[in-house]
């Protein structure tokens, strides 16, 4: 990382001036003045009883005298009241860019230790249609997985299906009431019966009880229910897989809540050993509150008084399973923010009982809202299903231009994904955002289509030219320099996205790079350029730009179509 490298250099120089402190370097806040800056002089002022200005000028003077100054800098200067400003030399920029081009992953630093991450995302509920919220966990989760892998760690992704909840009991009840033959159960039927039953249970407590009882018997192994459950799982599971294929989202493990049941007993044993289970009106609970809590954290319900297990039970048993099977260093949950309390309880029990020593991370995401600021609904007031959303996006894109209709299905799928994913992933994951499909599908602005256009336009030029293998050490103008400097920021962005588990850093970077690439392209005409050295240099920079764009688009799950 350049900031790191410059920090080390500054620290060394500062040492020779008698400061045994670490100097940090950041990207310039004023790019018109310099490329990088250090504000460390401010922090040292107190310690040394000197004005930041004195320290700053001392370091700048010493920096100017280092032997290999030109290998790093074009200029360093002091700016009142305490900034050290640095402008990189063209030679330094050239070498860094060549180094990026010549190494896999642009010479990203390998991790000192490879860690194992279990990632829990997707989490669709069998027999319930997937909606826009499920899209968010799927695409944020997939991107986080790709970023972690890119950085060099190991991931195990698990879809963690909701396959054992009340909705199953409701659907089974409906099937039995309808006296439906097993072979007549179809996806359409399931999509029809679930909302009906769910509505019925809301108004009729007796039926709700019956459905709960069916769910419980299923979990206890009732063979008739299990047979129906298998059928539901198969049909609904295939449809869920189809949607994930469309989104280009995949999982290593296709497990669900039902798989956790075999781990309930050993997990409960640990809870007993540690004497953590308490009785609360017939239910078994685990107390998790802590003295320092500012809000009330209720106990986790391990088992209800009727013997039923709950969401917290399966999540804990799943942590036990993951620990036994994979010994992960991290278990990360990409889940709706509104489940924060649930996971706080689960994590506390897991730590109290020492079920795992993995770091447990709740990576919450915000709500997808409509213009009214409330969770996004269709015009008719329903929560839109994923299929409908894909269809709607496709239609809006097709209506933009007559030629769009000639595109292949596969290209359209990729473009629809780019529209939806880029719109989503440019937002910090924990924030809500407003779903505005017209805005998202624009070809200008911070959108997926804009990025794809940029990429494909550059790609077209590059395909007609011989790609050079080296750069000269010249930089020709501002748009050229800005693009090159942005390329140099790449590793910092990737590592920050990894550390904070934030794909939006990558999406932002992609956008900035595309924007600079477009300015570059508009200002520096390659066609008919006589100066071969200049032409080579520019082709080199564009080649690297597109290589970076391509790999970063992969990290946010965007595939590149053949045409736009
Ligand atoms: N099925 C859950 C839901 O739709 C999400 C599952 C998240 N993962 C987990 N381990 N609890 O709310």
Describe this structure in words.
This protein is an alpha/beta fold and 564 residues long. 54% of the residues lie in helices and 10% in strands. The chain contains 21 helices and 13 strands. Helix 7 (166-177) packs across helix 8 (187-203), helix 9 crosses helix 10 (223-247) and helix 19 (490-500) runs antiparallel to helix 20 (503-523). The two termini are 35 Å apart. The structure holds arginine. Residues 120, 123, 125, 160, 162, 315, 333, 335 line the site of arginine.
Give a brief outline of the structure.
Helix content is 54%, strand content 10%. The protein has 564 residues and is α/β, with parallel strands linked by helices.
Write the layout of secondary structure elements.
Elements: H1 2-16, E1 26-27, E2 36-38, H2 40-48, H3 52-64, H4 69-72, E3 73-79, E4 83-88, H5 90-102, E5 116-120, H6 132-151, E6 154-158, H7 166-177, H8 187-203, H9 205-220, H10 223-247, H11 264-273, E7 277-280, E8 283-286, E9 300-303, H12 311-326, E10 330-336, H13 340-352, E11 359-365, E12 368-369, H14 386-400, H15 409-425, E13 433-434, H16 437-440, H17 448-463, H18 478-488, H19 490-500, H20 503-523, H21 532-555
Parallel strand pairs: 5-6, 5-10, 10-11, 12-13
Antiparallel strand pairs: 1-2, 2-4, 3-4, 7-8, 8-9
The structure holds arginine (ARG).
């Amino acid at each position: 990382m350049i900031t790191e490298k410059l920090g080390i250099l500054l620290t060394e120089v500062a040492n020779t001036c008698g400061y045994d402190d670490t100097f940090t370097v950041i990207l310039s806040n004023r790019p018109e003045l310099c490329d990088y800056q250090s504000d460390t002089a401010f922090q040292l002022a107190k310690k040394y009883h000197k004005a930041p200005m004195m320290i700053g000028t001392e370091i700048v003077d010493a920096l100017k005298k280092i032997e290999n100054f030109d290998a790093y800098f074009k200029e360093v200067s002091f700016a009142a009241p305490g900034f050290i400003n640095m402008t990189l030399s063209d030679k330094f920029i050239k070498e860094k860019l060549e180094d990026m081009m010549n190494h896999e992953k642009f010479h990203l630093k390998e991790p000192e230790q490879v860690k194992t991450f279990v990632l829990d995302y997707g989490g669709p509920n069998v027999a319930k249609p997937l909606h826009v919220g499920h899209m968010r966990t799927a695409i944020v989760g997939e991107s986080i997985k790709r970023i972690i892998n890119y950085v060099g760690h190991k991931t195990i992704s698990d879809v963690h299906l909701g396959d054992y909840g009340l909705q199953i009991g409701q659907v089974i009840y409906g099937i039995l009431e309808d006296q439906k033959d097993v072979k007549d159960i179809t996806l359409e039927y399931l999509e029809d019966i679930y909302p009906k039953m769910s509505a019925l249970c809301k108004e009729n407590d007796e039926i709700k009880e019956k459905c709960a009882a069916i769910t419980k018997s299923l979990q206890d192994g009732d063979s008739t229910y299990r047979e129906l459950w298998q059928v539901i799982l198969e049909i609904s599971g295939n449809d869920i897989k189809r949607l994930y294929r469309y989104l280009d989202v995949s999982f290593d493990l296709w497990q669900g809540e039902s798989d956790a049941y075999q781990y309930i007993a050993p997990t409960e044993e640990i809870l007993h050993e540690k004497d953590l289970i308490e009785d609360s009106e017939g239910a078994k609970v685990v107390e998790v509150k802590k003295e320092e809590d500012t809000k009330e954290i209720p106990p986790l319900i391990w088992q209800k008084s009727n013997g039923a297990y709950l969401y917290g039970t399966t999540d804990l048993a799943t942590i036990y399973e993951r620990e036994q099977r994979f010994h992960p260093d991290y278990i990360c949950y990409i889940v709706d923010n509104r489940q924060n309390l649930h996971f706080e309880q689960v994590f506390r029990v897991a730590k109290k009982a020492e079920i795992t020593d993995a770091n447990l991370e709740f990576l919450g995401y915000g709500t997808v809202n409509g213009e009214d600021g409330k969770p996004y609904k269709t015009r008719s007031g329903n929560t839109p299903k994923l299929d409908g959303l894909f269809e709607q996006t496709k239609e809006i894109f097709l209506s933009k231009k007559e030629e769009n209709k000639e595109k292949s299905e596969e290209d359209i799928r990729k473009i629809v994904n780019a529209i939806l994913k880029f719109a989503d992933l440019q937002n910090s994951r924990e924030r809500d955002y407003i779903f505005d499909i017209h805005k998202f599908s624009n070809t200008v602005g911070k959108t997926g289509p804009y990025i794809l256009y940029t990429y494909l336009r550059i790609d077209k030029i590059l395909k007609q030219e011989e790609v050079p293998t080296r750069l000269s050490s010249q930089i020709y103008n501002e748009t050229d320099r800005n693009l090159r400097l942005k390329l140099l920021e790449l590793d910092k962005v990737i590592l920050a996205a990894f550390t904070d588990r934030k794909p939006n850093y990558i999406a932002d970077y992609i956008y900035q790079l595309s924007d600079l690439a477009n300015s570059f392209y508009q200002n520096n005409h390659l066609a008919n350029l006589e100066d071969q050295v200049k032409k080579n240099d520019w082709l080199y920079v564009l080649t690297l730009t597109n290589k970076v764009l391509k790999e970063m688009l992969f990290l946010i799950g965007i595939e590149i179509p053949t045409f736009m």
